[in-house]
Amino acid sequence: MYVLGISRHHDAAAALVRDGEIVAFAEQERFSRAKHDGRFPTDAIRFCLEQGGITLADVDHVAYFWQRWREPLHAAKVFARYFPATLEVFRNEGDQGARASGLVETFRTGGKGVDNFHVGGAVLGHVKRGYTLGRDVREALGFTGQVKYKVHLVDHHRAHAASTFFISPWDEAAILTLDGIGSDGTSTFLAVGKGDRITDLRRFKFPHSLGAMYAGVTNYLGFYPTMDEGKVMGLAPFGRDTYVEQFKDLVYLADDGGYELNLDWFRHHTSGRHLMSQKFIDLFGPPRERTKVTADNPISQHYMDIAYALQVRLEEVGLHLARWLHDRTGLTKLCVAGGVALNSVMNGRIFLETPFEDFFAQPAAADDGSSLGAALAVSVGKYGRPRPVDGFMYTGPEFAEERMEQALQDAGLAYRRVDDIAAHTAKRIADGLIVGWFQGRMECGPRALGNRSLLADPRDPESKTRMNEKVKHREAFRPFAPSCLVERAGDYFASGYPSAVMLLVFDVLADKRDVVPAITHVDGTARVQTVSRDDNPLYWDMISHFEKLTGVPMVLNTSFNDNNEPIVCTPEDAVACFRKTDVDALALGPFWVEK
Fold this sequence. Notes:
By secondary structure, this protein is of the alpha/beta class. It has helices spanning 29-32, 42-52, 71-82, 94-101, 121-141, 156-165, 210-220, 229-235, 244-247, 278-284, 301-329, 344-353, 369-382, 401-410, 421-430, 461-472, 537-550, 571-580; strands spanning 2-7, 13-18, 21-27, 61-64, 150-153, 172-178, 186-194, 197-205, 251-253, 259-261, 333-337, 358-361, 416-417, 435-438, 452-456, 481-485, 504-507, 525-531, 554-559, 585-588, 591-594. Helix 11 packs across helix 12. InterPro entries: ATPase_NBD, Carbam_trans_C, Carbam_trans_C_sf, Carbtransf_dom, NodU/CmcH_Carbamoyltrnsfr.
């Protein structure tokens, strides 16, 4: 049984599930090269079908990440209560209309969608999509044959829940999903998963949204909401506790384990743009101008302190919810998903400071992953097909050596084939080179997991500076992650717990911080990726060679892309990024290029 899962809003994506196997899953942006692409995921769908060797005629079910049946009533209530200027939506088209109407701010279309539906923004778009999805898929692919598939509309947060629990290694676990807003207004969802069933326990609804709260302050800090929250998380450790007490008033923590936003601080009840209220501005001052952060235009300490207070409050709410969930269920295993679950600092505290003993997050925790979740909600939850047992990290395209070599030849690059690319790459990283590493199937999610990565020596403090300034062209305050052999993680970090998808932050042990300064953030932490031989044998082999050369069982790892572009997908993407940045060398499959 083939189930095609689709998400569209921001980070549009598609997934194909065949019984208990994830055949393919990828984000639309990787093919269109428009970051956070929210258009209909035509290219991602086409890839999934090609990877499965099928056409639309073979698809049994199409699952969409947003439910229709409650949506019209909910949309009317939300627009009536929170958006007095709703009529402006119908005077705008494309990105402008989306920004004017989006419940959780912008859904970036990057241009016109497949069906030319531009007015009404995210929610009205989802309502309409529920009635036209079957047709939209056929038209997007230009498919004129007969189809047999049945369309399923899946509750958004249950799609998030399915995306993490159904691929977790456990038969029973507590589930926590957090984001901006879902199909019935849900922003936070607490549940229990057992076998092929997910049972609701509790929901918190918009406007009481942790995702919206974080997005509002992200916007206040001069970054782009729903896109730059990771920057704010990286900025927070530079702050002081100046405003921590004041930020407690943003979110009330209830004795019954719940929470409620103080809406006096927010303007998402009068605007769809995640603005903070005049009360907030009167207390904390005017928003930071949205200008590029450079050495000549740094972020002032005041705004760093705001970021710190925001991050602390989010962590406190996350801990509060997780403790209630543990008390209610008595379970020791926790699965998380949703855009807020990309906050790896919060995740690390939940794992270390609550009674949960095991933690699982899927790499594409945000809305892109809900395409996979929708497919699994139908395949596993509705029809009782087996749960996938592996294969949830490297789900994208892979390319033959002939394609890689042709890309190098077309670019006019001098290259050579290396017998042992892992050993050779480790040696050149130890020599101080920054290497583009392109191997196997592309990983899913926003974090590079060792198949589309830029790698450097974690021992050299200049690795971080050079990577930020000369390669990634991004803000100097942003940290880099270590890819560490799983069997050695406990020797360097406060926890050796497996963290294969880079969604847990742990302290770097005090006596190791000077050993690996390039991956140690200003607060002494690191967002750890543990690498096992089973998950990625070639990447594990390369890091093992680096350990033999240096005694350090890790490399610095960041996504293979320039700033403001998606992670590279094809050999041609990798060659283009290599040529336009100060990357020193490229390991493209077995081929080696060095500047």
